[in-house]
Amino acid sequence: MKTIKSELSEHIVAAVVKLYGDDYCDLDPLIQPTTNSEFGDYQANLAMSLAKKLEQKPREIAHALLEELDMPSICDKIEIAGPGFINLYLKNTFVNQRLETLANSPEFGVTREFSPETIVIDYSAPNIAKEMHVGHLRSTVIGDAAARIFTKLGHKVIRQNHMGDWGTQFGMLIEFLVDGGWTEQDSQDSLADIEQRYRDSKLKFDSDPEFNQRARQRVVALQSGDDYTLKLWNYLVRESTQHFMEIYQRLGVLLTETDNCPESFYNPMLAGTVQELADKSMLETSDGAEVIFLDGFKDRDERPLPMIVRKSDGGYLYSTTDLAAVRYRCADLGANRIIYITDARQAQHFAMLFAAVRKAGWASTEVRLDHMPFGSVLGADRKPFKTREGGTVRLIDLLDEAEKRAEVVLQLKNPELPVSERKELAKTISLAALKYADLSNDRIKDYVFDWDRMLALDGNTAPYLQNAYVRILSIFRKGEIDRGSVRSAKFELSHPAEKALALKLFQYSAAIYAVVDRLEPHRLCTYLYELAALFHAFYEACPILKEETPESIRKSRLALSDLCARILKDGLDILGIETVERM
RNA sequence: GCCCUGGUAGCUCAGUUGGAUAGAGCGACCGCCUCCUAAGCGGUAGGUCACAGGUUCGACUCCUGUUCAGGGCACCA
User: Fold this and answer.
1) pLDDT digits (tens, 9 = 90+) for A412-426
2) Domain boundary residue among A90, A109, A140?
């Protein structure tokens, strides 16, 4: 399906070529929706940019183009304004016809990728022996949206949950459990208990050199496959994984157990990975550790900063695992692209990792490597979001709290709802609000967590979008009209609010591509919010079911509403957000 | 010290490859329900786009410098 922008572009480029020659056949005519409806519907900004090259005044170029332009079926007015803007006014008949095309396009103008890629997305990655907390929310939610959008575009998406289940901290925790005389019976412990032990073991690790030493040996035992150590470790993994899966299910994200590919998965590959680096002459020994030096990385004393792949005690660490993971993902999973969704603090680690795997040749230049960093979640005091007591906010508590608050709001706004329905709705709405609050902020920035704002139901929130959807369904319910029955209706725009809504609907595919190009889900949020706002304005201005509305106009408005609902739902679905039937 | 991110209305945030008068929501103020769900809509007020230069016909956007905030910089992840 051709977009309106590309259609306009073709006409304008044709005019440019006719006037100034074939050299301009690839020119971008800089078409965009107008910033203000008083300037028409679309504007072309090329006259200004051509002025220097052609050594003519922008307005003269614009005038010449105007003479040459021939698209009477598309525009009913074209005018020149300001320094040389070309303002295009679309004909209603053209808009009507394009609406019909859009309404019958299964993907609303979003075309599936002609040459699909295999995209590995590395996200969520909670740590074994710890409950999931607020810090895991962004990676999980953003990663879920990324997985959904690439899948929608027709790519093969391989989700990878690179859980932290390997390394120094497990030696520490297991040694602590052994010290405490761990028995099978202790395996009744909750994950919260385990996490408490984890914290205790950390304290001991930092304060007791003898314990520290034993903990390090325990890591070696773990990594070399000692039976008893593995038994305890398996227990920790089992408990933790179960907890993670429960949370994922509740969050409604795509991650399942089959996506688990934790650090330990790479354990058998680590020695080989390091050996291969040695074979490629990339390794150096520095202070007893095996390291890679990469161009452009310096430490605080301006000396080359190493990437440590093997510690002086012989143990491997996250760098080693990440190197092995890239190798595996390229060679075995056939990745064309790998996307890491982690917080921004790891930027340097990934910069080094990417440089190293390029140098080692594990990721060819054909493979695209992306770090998709995100900022922290902050409290009202602009410091990292904590509980009132100053502790880490558990994800489960966050979800419970959101649900409770949504229920209170629902009771206030719609007291007639039966309790069971209210509880169900509270689940969906609170989850939507939580995810949307996260996704609608530019991911690179820190964002301030605010309960009242995310559930505020107006402004750029999930409930506002869900409400627009509910309103549309409600029209059809009230009129006892089947939505499918309006899909073939003729569009007949008769009010500016309808046209404004229509123009926004046309931009859905552009919004999707904007998200993909820059890996910025908030662009889709902004789009959907603007769409919902335009729908609400249309709804106020344009009666639909009322008797005063002529039949053909009513049909057109119903079709417009239905299309709007379908696009809202589709967009929210990409974000991993559910719609509701009523609220 | 070096590097990476940010700084837009009182608050929370958008702002597309540089385009016209920088936009929302909240809060404040003024309106709109005998009418498809007022969880809504319309309007008013509120800005030195951190600061200073530069490039450009045109800069919130690009470049340089300054400043403030957050983060990273060797065996944790």
Assistant:
1) 888 888 999 999 999
2) A90
